[in-house]
Design goal:
The complex is a heterodimer of chains A (about 475) and B (about 325).
Chain A: H1 6-47, H2 50-84, H3 86-120, H4 127-156, E1 161-164, E2 167-170, H5 173-177, H6 182-211, H7 215-250, H8 252-258, E3 270-277, E4 282-289, H9 292-298, H10 319-348, H11 356-362, H12 368-382, E5 387-389, E6 393-394, H13 404-435, H14 453-466
Antiparallel strand pairs in A: 1-2, 3-4, 5-6
Helix pairs in contact in A: 1-2, 1-4, 1-6, 1-12, 1-13, 2-3, 2-13, 3-4, 4-6, 6-7, 6-11, 6-12, 7-8, 7-10, 10-12
Chain B: H1 3-36, H2 43-53, H3 57-74, H4 76-85, H5 87-110, H6 115-141, E1 145-146, E2 149-150, H7 160-184, H8 188-218, H9 220-227, H10 231-235, H11 237-254, H12 260-280, E3 283-285, E4 289-290, H13 298-325
Antiparallel strand pairs in B: 1-2, 3-4
Classes of the chains: A mainly alpha (about 475), B mainly alpha (about 325).
Chain lengths: ~475, ~325
Amino acid sequence: MDLAPDTLVLLSRIQFAFTVSFHIVFPAFTIGLSAFIATLLIAHLRTGREHYRTLARFWTKVFAVSFAMGVVSGIVLSYQFGTNWSRFSEITGNVIGPVIGYEVLTAFFLEATFLGIMLFGGDRVPKWLHAMAAVIVAFGTALSAFWILSANSWMQTPAGFEMRDGIAYPVSWFQIVFNPSFPYRFVHMLVAAYLTTSLVVLAVGARYLLAGRFVEEGRTMMRMGVGMLAVLAPLQLVIGDFHGLNTAEHQPAKVAAMEAHWDGSQPADLVLFAWPDAKAERNRFEVSIPKGASLIITHDPNGLFPGLKDFPAEDRPPVWPVFFSFRIMVAIGMLMIAIGFVGAWLWWRGRLFESRWFLRPVGYTWSFGFIAILAGWMVTEIGRQPWIVHGVLRTAQATSPVLTSTVAISLALFVFVYCVVFGVGVLYIRRLLQKGPTPTAHGPDQSLPSRPLAAAQQATREALASGGVS
Amino acid sequence: MTGIEYTMPVIWALLIGTAVALYIVLDGFDLGLGILFPYFRSESDRDQMMNSVAPFWDGNETWLVLGGGGLWVAFPQAYAVIMPALYLPVILMLLALIFRGVAFEFRWVAKPRHRKWDIAFAAGSTVAALSQGVILGGLIQGITVVDGQFAGGAFDWLTPFTLMCGLGVVAGYALLGATWLMMKTEGPVEVRARRFTPRLLALLMLFVGIVSLWTPLAIERIAERWFTMPNVFYLAPVPLATLLLAWVCWRGTLSGRTVQPFLAAVGIFMLAYAGLVISNAPWLVPPTLTIWDTAAYVGSQVFMLIGTTLLLPMVLGYTVFVFWIFRGKLKPGEGYH
């Protein structure tokens, strides 16, 4: 098959990367948030304490806005496989198609339908049913991650298929769904989603305590956030290590790019900083710990693993984006471990809510989880290049027979619309967070259509007074 | 072709056809409300309209994902030809659905400065409906295919015929929206929707008439199918039943019925849809590729069918459950928000 023009491939890749990056932020947040809300509703059900319900109502509003953005940006993706990657769709459709199909049937309908009850059923259905709807939505979002990560992992480590006349045919569905990298990628992503949301909850809680507003709610949020971080952040390190070993086995070129490791005949140093120079096939300005990478990847300081030079130049991924993204992700992961550890220690000493030196910086970390997730996806997706399906189909052979100019137009439209719509959406979430969890005794909350003008102005004043959440 | 390789694509065509039909009806009334938004000027009317579909719209839109995803699963080659061929209208529809979708949530957070989201809701719904009609028209008029790949131009889909189909879908969705409002709301919104319905019905019948005349004139294979013996006798009931349902819808509206006009409008849509299927089957990418040409490997179709048989009844079950939870009419000022 002939190669499509470079510009077409590049624009198609940018468009997919752009739309999927905007998208992933919202599901990652709503996977964690739905679980958080379900936990709060169950806690309210069991203890009867009102502030759990207040918190659940408050975060449900944030959830609704985020979920809507996740839904509309997700539909784009399900059609983009066809509009921009039609050759990929045709060649892999027999294998990946059903995996995506199962996502729609098992997860999308479940979340979308019970969302109605979760958002609007608070006053219409019994408490237990409302809590159950939240649990079902939380389960649905995680199940959705299961299938989509299975499909993605198959593109990284394809298995259970055979190629006939250039088309992939399924041989074993079990091997396709549970392909070699899937269990690691799925758990890694799911934990990343829960960590990201925990950090948002923790940061918002810290801000409330600093401002002296919503103290009881803020404390609950901090306790839950710190608890999650203290347990999950170290766990994520272990999961990430397993995931890395799996990648070293199946996609050695990706690992070589992650570590900026050029010469496979020598033990690899752990490069803390460098400017990887792909032309000269070496690192400039390198600061490294001798044999550190060999220790991490092979668990032996003198262990060898392939370097970039072991692969023909046309089979190597771009090095610097993979290298830097990986470092950003790991740095944030370490920071999360530190926050979890310090937070847990302060909690144990009974000073968690008074230590302003802790609350103040933590209040600024709300976005870190999202950055880490995006960086992680850059590592795995750019690291898979030049393949769209590793070892099977090259990205340059997978595009649609459309004009480069057409893709340029659609890309410009996507950039414009996404920046406007999702930019405003994030501002609205910020507005909701600034307004905070105002308790409601009963009945519909204050976001009712007839909400008086005064309430909005009051919220704006409070927001200005508290100095903004950004 | 052995038995299963013949029947599987037929089963899948029926399943995807059902998903698309459900999407047209369910998201049709959602989008219809958006199309009618500019004709309801007061804020409380608009609140009430939006609230009448707020718990359902997300589930309704999921049928669109199933339609697109299902096409990829069962007919990957058709998916790989149709999507590039209709690239621009598909992208336009997706962008329009973004505006209308986020408006459902943003509008409440933005209050009292929510006017821009009223516009986004109305424009997004209208453009999405128009694009869907154009996509449909583009498919009916045919796609240039060489060696199983799309080989036409970027604007092949843009013809007077496809634009007429687009306007027809806008009018039809508006009718579904108006009849939905009669069924699900009380007060001034219901009264106004009842006033609009006869006009929308007349408009839809006009478009259905135009498209029905235009299609056989422009497309020979369809003329052949319609006007040869004995097909004429089999097909004649479709326009007759459409006229009957239009009368039922009109009578129901004038005599103050709540559910009857909506069901009649749904019936009109289903008949028009059936007409399309009759005219085009078994072509999936007219006029070159049939459902059998584009079918996925039979093992993939079977694997997905097993899951669908188990899961689809569940999906339908809890969809009905949610519509039942939020049953009844919505009074002015009342909302689930």
